[in-house]
Predict the structure.
Amino acid sequence: MKLAQALHEAALSRTPIPQPVDDFDVATAYEIQEELLTLRGEPLSGVKLGFTSEGKRRQMGVNDLILGRLTPSMAEVDVAKYIHPRVEPEVAYLVGRRIETVEDALRPGAVVAVAAGLEVIDSRYENFRFSLESVIADNTSAAGYAIGPWRAYDPDDWNLGVLFEIDGRPVHVGSTGAILGDPRRAVVEAARLAVQVGLAIEEGAILLAGAATPAEPLREGAHVQVEIQRLGKVVL
Ligand code: OOG
């Protein structure tokens, strides 16, 4: 599909493209996303959810959950390789056994570890503007991530304070409870969307549960830190 190619080239050349003029549905959008990932030529290191918190949905004017794919090179965050990057705090889960049905996501051991995470999003569209379908096609703006030290998963750790700092100043303070009301639901929602698009979430995959606060611009040289109560810190 032409859109996958155009999005791939936009990322490589750091030149945003206009939003597609043709309408397409969500199922087609996930097909374009898959094609875009084939063009990247990398295996998956995990998946991510988007628009899981009210703050993010309001910021972007979008109302549904979206699933994106993570690849190993996204773990090498380098501001110079993006178009207009933004950064946001996330809860990261480590998948302990292959998830290919929603039931798998509910089984003990589906998730074995949890960590503070940071996600870099970088829309390949001009002005960071998109529809639900066009952002799905653009792999949900996925561009980079960083994960703090893993700690054993404890299902009671669901409503934890989040402190998001840039250059030593707090920019947002929130709670992981803002993620779907309870970030543990993210595992089930990710499974539901993965089943819908025909994707299995492999053992060892990273699952980014969605931003706990709105995103902030990521400037060259900025010191970004997320600290989540009990989970610890992650820095960029
Ligand atoms: C889409 C990605 C949103 C989140 O955590 O809500 C997202 C975007 O805002 O560009 O990853």
The mean pLDDT is 93. The CA atoms of residues 33 and 119 lie 18 Å apart.
